[in-house]
Amino acid sequence: MTPFPALPPLTDRKHKLPLVILQVAAIWIASDIGFYFLMPALQIQPTYNGASTEISLYYIFWIGIAVITFWPVYRTWPAYGPRRTFENRTRSYLLWIAIYGIAVVFAGFVLPQLPAVGWKETWQPPEFIMATPNYFLPKSIDILFQQLLVLAFVLALAADGLKLRTITLLCAAAFGGMHILLAFGNEPVRYVVRFMVFASLFGLVFPWLILRVRNGLAISYMLHWTYYAISVALPHIFLRAQ
Q1: How many domains does the chain have?
Q2: What is the pLDDT of residues 104-133, one digit of tens each?
Q3: Structure pTM?
């Protein structure tokens, strides 16, 4: 069989850095506009708890858009990552089983056993505070969608010859900044700021994991997912009903 031809640098192909950045921003913004405005227009309440199946399907659609759009970028990953994808299949199997198992055990068994949240404020709480097990199926798919956008962004910056420190700072600024779109969901300002701050901190870690750590994308995904698990669990501990 004829081997695949070697891929030229990303900057020598049509998917140059400004275009990739524009595409990442456009896909993220379009997905949020659809979530906050199109779904209600279709009589679908945009809540992870109340429309788990519909929102899961919605983000699966956007994952497909991301993969199709950024496939030429993803193909450059072996040139910038630490190892070939799934080079050690045994380790990859174990990591996948661990990630899947932790997610299922937390959402299906731990969360239902936590004390109920006693919300006493006059304003509507953010959805994650009142999350049910249904919350985590669409949220897990949403996180994968975001991780795929981060992966494209980081690989495009790496292909442009930027140093890891520069990539890290740009990723932190972009990932944190995009979370301002949470304001579309009428979240209280302090929660929008909180998510922006933590997203920026995670943005400092994601590029290093993706470009330097074996199975780094899986670890990046689990770190991202764990943040939401902790955010969901803490109100059950500190705001539990009396």
Answers
A1: 1
A2: 999 999 999 999 998 888 888 899 999 999
A3: 0.90
